[in-house]
Amino acid sequence: MLTKTVKLTTLALILTLTLAINVGATHAQVMPVTAHVDRTTVSTDDIVTLTVTIVGETNVPLPVLPDIEGAQIIGRSTASQITITNGKASAEFNFSFRLQPLREGLLTIDPVKVVINGTEFETHAIEVTVVRGTGVAGSSSSAPPTPTSRTLSGQDFFVAAEVDNETPYLGEQIAYTVRLYDARSFGRGQRYRAPAFTGFWNIQEDERHTYNTVTAGRRYSVTETSSILFPTVVGELEIDPAVMEISTGFFGGSRSPQASMPVSVTVRPLPLGAPQSFNGAVGSYDISASVDTNDISSSEPVTLTISVSGEGNLDVLPEPGWPDMPGWRVFDNPPDTVTYTTSGEFGGKRTYHRVLIPKTSGFLNIPVVEYAFFDPKEERYRTISTRPIAVTVSLDATAQANGFPNAPAKLVIEQVDSDIRHIKSAPSSLSVSGSPLTSRPLYWALWALPIVLLVASAGWRFKERLLLGRGEVDNAAFARNTALSMLQYAKQSDSDHFAASEGALIAYLTTRLDRPTYGLTHDEVSSLLTQANISPSLAQEVVSLLNLTQDGRFGPAQLGDSVEGVLDQTERLIDELEWEFEQ
């Protein structure tokens, strides 16, 4: 009896452990949403990047972050990769959010929740330690100092703030400008503490420049800081005072906070009469559409690219109203956004990539895509649209065999007679003439030939491995010489310096890291360099240079002296990388 009880107990334990393992494995397999930060310890001067990754699905919603107390979202970006294998699509989406810590202490990012196909998934909570930086110190909840004066009347310091439009429409861009007037001839140390901009979307890094002026009977050095804002609520809003912390001691040992007056803004609602396709876009835009090919087979996809460009808040721009796509299966990607500031206007381009797979063959049409927006300069709604695109879909052998729609029926051929008349009839009996094949030497020589070839191949591979070390040295020298030759050619020609610098650096890294680096994110390049024992500071210089070259290629043309020095900077960076690779 006791033995039977022990056996039953053991069997129950085994079943329980098996179920627990299966449940855990199943849970691990169906967890498509993860989150991580690029670092867990930052200062109040730094930016921390939160990345939410969604894998497996091809049509996913944008993650909505929880309220993050102690940090402000200052920007976001997306990256995606969709793979179609045998007609089945799989994807990976990375949503990155740039967070600016507001105070010291422990910054807690609560779980991010994403609903996919009716099922809610959530990530784990993340904690980031924030330490005091060299910029804004202390808690952001402390009240700013009281402005000393409303007007500039000859005092040593004065801070003024204004907006270029006090009555914008909802979502219309305004420029907030702060000017510090400093009449001293020494001690130019300044720290700018921007307001919280409650009720506004602020996505752009502040622009700052200095100049001299004479006013109120004194000569002043003026530091001007501009921020681009987009109001997100309707009604009366007040922008808190901006604060400038000024070094008052000769050696900068003490600081005097100077504050501006608050600025009032009255945000107007959008007018009535919006078209039915209007989704909330405000600004001035153009739209275009293209496909990567107009002639495909029934087993191939076509990529439809829709680009919306112009002036406005591109980072939160609503999607177009997508029309029905009869005859197509549609897979959406998150949009790619490139933004820039030109002459104080914030704009750029948002690009949507839709992967289309045909359901039928023949001549298929991609219909018109309309986009409606409110133009605040013209104070009216506008609707723009693309042109229809025709695509020819031809049948391939696989689709026809699988009964693809519109495939012609198979023609059945029936044999009714034979048109071959044999000259010699078959013999009545069969016999072998001569000696058997196995008694011939050539027969056994052919059997031994594969073994001889296998031994020769193994010897050849062994020789290649002996020469591999010598080849790696040659590859290293080839990588450096090739990259420097590309840079030297760019210096002597009228080619794009930014493109030449990026191409030389990517070609060098591809050879040195022994894997393709073109198309990788900058974080992935930095990770590969770290794995190759490159110092973090040098890896960060590589990432900074790649950012500079991309800004130079795709951003505004006004980049100052960066164009002239980018080739020399790339050459210096390759020499430093070569030295660390050889250590």
Give a description of the structure:
By secondary structure, the chain is of the alpha+beta class. The chain has helices at residues 2-29, 397-401, 441-492, 497-513, 522-531, 536-554, 562-582, and strands at residues 33-37, 41-43, 48-55, 71-85, 88-101, 105-109, 113-116, 119-122, 126-131, 157-163, 174-182, 190-193, 200-201, 207-215, 218-231, 235-239, 243-247, 255-259, 263-267, 278-291, 295-297, 302-312, 328-332, 336-342, 345-358, 362-366, 370-375, 380-385, 389-394. Strand 4 (71-85) and strand 5 form a beta hairpin. The termini are far apart. Mean pLDDT is 77; it is low at 8-13, 15-29, 135-144 and 408-412.
